[in-house]
Amino acid sequence: MDIDLNGILNSKRLAISRALSFVENTDNLDMELTDALFKHLGRAYRIGVTGPPGAGKSSLVDRIITYWRDQGKRIAVISVDPTSPFTGGAILGDRVRMGRHYADKGVFIRSMATRGSHGGLALRAQDAADIFDAAGYDIIVYETVGVGQVELDVAKAADTTLVVLVPESGDDIQAMKAGLMEIADLFVINKADRQGANQAFAQIQSMLEMRHPEKGLWPPQVIKTSALQDEGITDLTTALIEHRQFLDEHGIIRQNFRDRIQFKIQSHIDENVLHSFWTQGRARQLDQAMATEKVRNILPGKIVAALLNDETK
Amino acid sequence: MDIDLNGILNSKRLAISRALSFVENTDNLDMELTDALFKHLGRAYRIGVTGPPGAGKSSLVDRIITYWRDQGKRIAVISVDPTSPFTGGAILGDRVRMGRHYADKGVFIRSMATRGSHGGLALRAQDAADIFDAAGYDIIVYETVGVGQVELDVAKAADTTLVVLVPESGDDIQAMKAGLMEIADLFVINKADRQGANQAFAQIQSMLEMRHPEKGLWPPQVIKTSALQDEGITDLTTALIEHRQFLDEHGIIRQNFRDRIQFKIQSHIDENVLHSFWTQGRARQLDQAMATEKVRNILPGKIVAALLNDETK
Question: What's the rounded Cα separation, in Å, for the pair A88 and A110?
Fold first, then answer.
């Protein structure tokens, strides 16, 4: 790839766009881009926003953008689309909803499609964030639709993870609690003008109190907002800033940085190893084994063993 | 593993439970279980149920169980928990909600935790379904929380995929539409006694009409239900049966069966290849590279290359 490193470092939109497309569209099996950017990483604050569809994540991110733009900060948003493996598409709705920031040079919003591989989505989101980090964006927001495994992985690639719920989520808080507790630094009850907001608030609070966080760990907070009515946004951004300070003071930002590199290295190695294994010959061998008319007569374990043991392909 | 194949084939609960635990708790790197069960697969009808948290999936599955139990069918439910990588836990809420079927010998409900690997979750859900299939269960329901990548993978492992929404999901239908359209055979608008149900219904209908499915493809349907009020359940089960007949008549059941085996074979090979690569020596090498005080001085691409090129570890 022809990486325009100077263009990225000088925050040229074209250079950034091209690098993002590279991340999205290539197998990215070498780490050329990572190595080029590496010395320029570590300044940006990375916020992951996750939660069920319908929680109003995009509207909330829209408000966060406005808040930080008013403070002169530059902000990038990466919308990660878990459905895209099926379509190659991106989250149209989000683009529309955050559209009014498109003319603002201090805001860069990008929907990321993925190309099927599982670990790949989280990895590519991280690569994209690295580009924005190197380009001098102050704040990077990963936004995901859903609360599944990949979304949680993406959230883990952030310094602060915000889990957005709505008053009606009450039923599910119980079910999801263990997993959410593990990743949420801040809970947001959005659409808090709706019925049940106080109940949901109390429910999460009591969940958090039961937990007795270890000393030195951040005690997660619950914040009520209404993105549409522009309420609670200052509470939210204040909590975000407090969390970031906490991370800084406890050396966690540095540890997160290290963990993300290790994740990236390990994922790249895995991709390479599998890429080397799946030669055309082996892929053909598997296809042929499956193409037999009498699929009932094959033994799957035999096919696995044959492919693993054949060194000649 | 000591697989009690006869126990499974005779549908002994203890044998099934032990096989499920095996699937859940081992790396399952050989395909001993798959090969043992293989000749006994293909009878069960596999239904995937997915949709956002709060859509009432568990209540709906509960009604489906009751309906088919009244017809004398045996039914297994696999609740796949995407949050469990963080906790090892399972979906407590679902167990509680479907608890009244626990005493029924014709019903087997199992929450599946996973152990971190991405492809692993979908793969293990499929292994679990194979056990129930071999044990003679007529219907197997995969239930997932969320609409993320892994959940969609799990849904793809089913013959029929049901996407459950609520009237309030309207906002998100637009955003998720491409991905959902690709996988949903049936859309259910649950909690249809709530405001906005007809609007959501019309929205999905018009989406489906715009699509002009190719001849020979199943035209997805929309069904309104209220699981709590026990309304629309017969409509839903009728549509499920129609879809299954359609699949049978078009040879799709057989193709699905083949695709699932191929997915399983490929995933097992991938796991084996990575397992062979990550020797203790290589894992230590990566840890040591990351443990350096001056993480800023490393070049990630160099570490990748060193690990990939060193054949001696």
Answer: 14
The reply to whether B172 and B285 lie within a common domain is no
A136 and A285, same domain (yes or no) = no
For B109-123, what is each residue's pLDDT tens digit? 888 765 544 456 677
pTM exceeds 0.90 for this model? no
| Angle of CA points A194, A221, B151, to nearest 5° | 70
Distance of alpha carbon A127 from alpha carbon B135, whole angstroms: 46
Q: How far apart are CA B193 and CA B197, in angstroms?
A: 7
Residues of B in Cβ contact (< 8 Å) with A289:
265
Q: Which of residues 7-66 of A touch B (CB under 8 A)?
A: 30-32, 34-35, 38-39, 52-54
H or E element that contains A118: helix A118-134
**Same domain flag for A169 and A75:** yes
Q: Is B222 found in the same domain as B195?
A: yes
Query: What span, in angstroms and rounded, lies between the C-alpha atoms of A111 and B13?
Result: 47
ipTM of the prediction = 0.76
Residue of chain A whose alpha carbon sits nearest to that of B289: A262
* CA proximity to A126, closest of B253, B300, B47, B234: B300
Q: How many domains does chain B have?
A: 2
A222 and A119 share one domain:
yes
Counted across chains A and B, CB pairs separated by less than 8 A come out at 235
- Whether residues B140 and B264 share a domain: the answer is yes
Tell which A residues from 94 to 123 touch B, by Cβ distance under 8 Å: 94, 118-119, 121
- Note whether B119 and B241 are same-domain residues: yes
Residue at A273 is within a domain? no
For helices A300-309 and A280-291, what crossing angle results, to 10°?
160
CATH number, domain with residue A154: 3.40.50.300
Residue A58 has pLDDT above 60, yes or no: yes
Range of the structural domain that residue A295 is part of: 279-309
B9, B135 Cβ separation under 8 angstroms: yes
Identify any residues that bridge with B169 across adjacent strands, giving them in sequence order: none
From the list A94, A57, A61, the residue with the least C-alpha distance to A75 is A61
Beta carbons within 10 angstroms of residue A147's beta carbon: 30
Confidence class for position B85, pLDDT limits 50, 70, 90: very low
